[in-house]
Structures are given as structure tokens and as C-alpha cells.
Design goal:
Layout lengths: L6 H12 L2 H25 L21 H8 L6 E5 L7 H8 L4 E6 L2 H13 L5 E5 L12 E7 L8 H11 E12 L7 H10 L2 E7 L4 E8 L1 H5 L1
Parallel strand pairs: 1-2, 1-4, 2-3, 4-5
Antiparallel strand pairs: 5-7, 6-7
Bound molecules: S-adenosylmethionine (SAM).
The site of S-adenosylmethionine has 21 residues, from strand 2.
Amino acid sequence: MLLGRERPDRRWSTVAMTGTPGRRTAARWMAGAALAAGAAAWWWGDGAPYPYAQHRLLDVPLPFLGRGRLDALLGTRPGERFLEIGPGTGLQALHVAGQLGDSGRLDIVDIQQPMLDHVMRLAARRELTSIVPSRADARELPFPDATFDGAYLVTVLGEIPDVRAAVSELRRVLKPSGRLVVGEFLDRHYVPFVTLLRHASARGLQVTARLGPPLAYYAQFRPMPWAAES
Ligand SMILES: C[S@@+](CC[C@H](N)C(=O)[O-])C[C@H]1O[C@@H](n2cnc3c(N)ncnc32)[C@H](O)[C@@H]1O
């Protein structure tokens, strides 16, 4: 059995191989700092789209971003044409398409084909025929000006490398009477409301409603009257 006094000997024998205790502590701090910096860079700086391999997590509704609140701000009516950017596995798309009915249409745009295929498989199973997929980047939407009665995106905006360009495109494809609903949640791609408001105002969109706490909110925007005329 080792006596308390004997333990330092073993410690010092390790130190003899790897350096002084002060240097080892400094090395540990530096390694920890490098890890923390790497994690922060990944958390805040990675603009990659949400990986399809983790699609099962997208089926779990996020707190404060439920369908009731989305419905309240979208105000869909049968026969209208809507656009969703970044539908993921269709948590919102399948619900909204049902509201638009057979005479309406929901265009879904995603940068990843597997996401679109996933939604279309589920739509076929539910016999929903009003969903039309397009693989495209939100920064360059493949639609003419003033096409949609409404557009929405939920936990997508921060994944798009240029938020300003995406908001600009959304404004372009909205009808003057259209509405845009943005849902944001505190994840690593979170866009704070003030940032969104700045981009929206610069593109001629005014905020008309907001639901939920700051870290999990829905915001509704409409084209400003003066901007709709230009
Ligand atoms: C976190 S998922 C959100 C999915 C869904 N809206 C939800 O709430 O479950 C983000 C989605 O945005 C898509 N996306 C990311 N960047 C995009 C871009 N530049 N243009 C279009 N879609 C994009 C991703 O492929 C993914 O389907």
C-alpha cells in the first residue's frame, strides 16, 4: 500500500518525462482555449445547411414555434399560393398545404434534394397534391416578382449565408398584399429579432405582428405601402 508521502514521487516521475507542472498547466489551458475557440467557431460560424442525416430531429416541434402560432400569422385561405423556404422534413409544409386545399399551391424550396424528396414522399402518402418542390438557393428564388400571397421559413434564415439577399428575394416574390412569416429559435443559426427587423425594413417590409419570447419567436411582415408601389 502507498503512503501519502510516496505519491508525490510518482507525480514527479511523470513530470520528469513531460515537463514542469507550470508548463503542463499552461499547455492544458491552451488546449482548453483552442477547443473552446473551435467549438465557438463551429457554433457561430458554420453556415452549412442542416444535414439530412439528422432529419429525425426535425420532426420534433420546437417550443413556442407550434402550428397554432404559425397559422395565426400566416392566415392562409383556400386557393392561395404560398412559399416555404427550407421545409426540412415537412413539419410545417404538410400542415400548411392541407389548409390551402386542392385549389391552392404550396411551393417548397430547399437547397438539399433529400429534404424535398422526404416531403414529397410524405405528401404522396397523404394524397396532398398541392405541394410543388424546387431545389434552389433562397438567395436566388426561381419565381417571378409578386407571385405569392404568403411566404414563411422556420429556423432557416440563419443557415442562409446572406440573410440580406434572402430577405430581398422574399420581398421580391411577395405580392403587395402578401405576408411573410419568419420563425427563429435559439440554436446556433439563431437570427435575433433586431437583426431581422433591420434587414426587413431595408427591403421595404414592415413588422405587423410578433408572437413568442425573444429566443423563440414568430414575426409577421408585410410590404410597406410605398414600397409596394415602386
Ligand atoms: C433546420 S432545417 C429547418 C426545417 C424546417 N423548417 C423545420 O422547422 O423543421 C433548415 C432547412 O433549410 C434548408 N436550407 C439551408 N440553407 C438553405 C438555402 N440557402 N436555401 C434554401 N434552403 C436552405 C436546409 O436544407 C433545411 O431543410
